Each structure stands twice: as structure tokens, then as C-alpha cells.
Amino acid sequence: MFVYYRPSNYKKKTAVAIYLAVAIPLMFVVPSFVGGQLPFSVNRLVFKGVPVSIIVDFLLDETARSAYFRGNKQLLHDRLGEMGVEEKVKDFYRPQGLDEQQLDQHIHQIFYDNTGYVGTAYRVNLDGILVRKNL
Question: Does 105 score more than 80 pLDDT?
């Protein structure tokens, strides 16, 4: 009998944290040792829809990191708001030509996909897509 093993959220989040802790520094250290330039623009790197520069800020913030790994969605949301993450992500995606409502929905979808947090102006449909509530 085949038993599908599904790792817990804690194990997945730990694996992602370890990956980021190793992969991101390697992307910057290895090119410096071989004397070349980075083969990409650091400002355009994203992981799961979030710019890497914002992820680094998040990983350096004890409160945000702790809330994420403890699964405290409300504290994480509040801390990310204090850090201005939503506006930074919007600034990153704004050049794609989305109007402000589309941009807001896109950013909230990214946050939902990565943290499970649903903003008060949204609900999740059966396909896991955030849709704006009729307020």
C-alpha cells in the first residue's frame, strides 16, 4: 500500500528558510570569487512572487520571521504593514501596467499564497483565488 507523506507546514517553512539562507548568499558570493558580474539584475529577482530584497528584509526582522514560523497570521500581517511591505511589492509590480485595483488584488493573492492570510476586503473562491468582497 502506498502512503503519501505530506510534510507539515513547519517542515516546509523550515526547508524554505534553509534554502534561502544557503541559496541567496551563494548567488552573490560565487560570482565574486570567479571574478565575474552577477548574471542577473538583483532588483528583479523574485521568490514565490515576492522580490528577494523584501524577503531579505523580512528574514532580518525578528518579529516578522517569528510570526511566520509560528503561524501567527494576524501578527505577521500587522508587522508586514509596519514594514511597508505591501507598498514595496506594489512599487515592484506597478510598471506592469495594472490598475490600482488589479495591483491590490495581485499583491493580496501573493500574500495569501505565501501565508494563508486573507485581507478583510477579500474572500477566497473555490479555486483558491481571492476575489473582492462587495462592500
Answer: yes
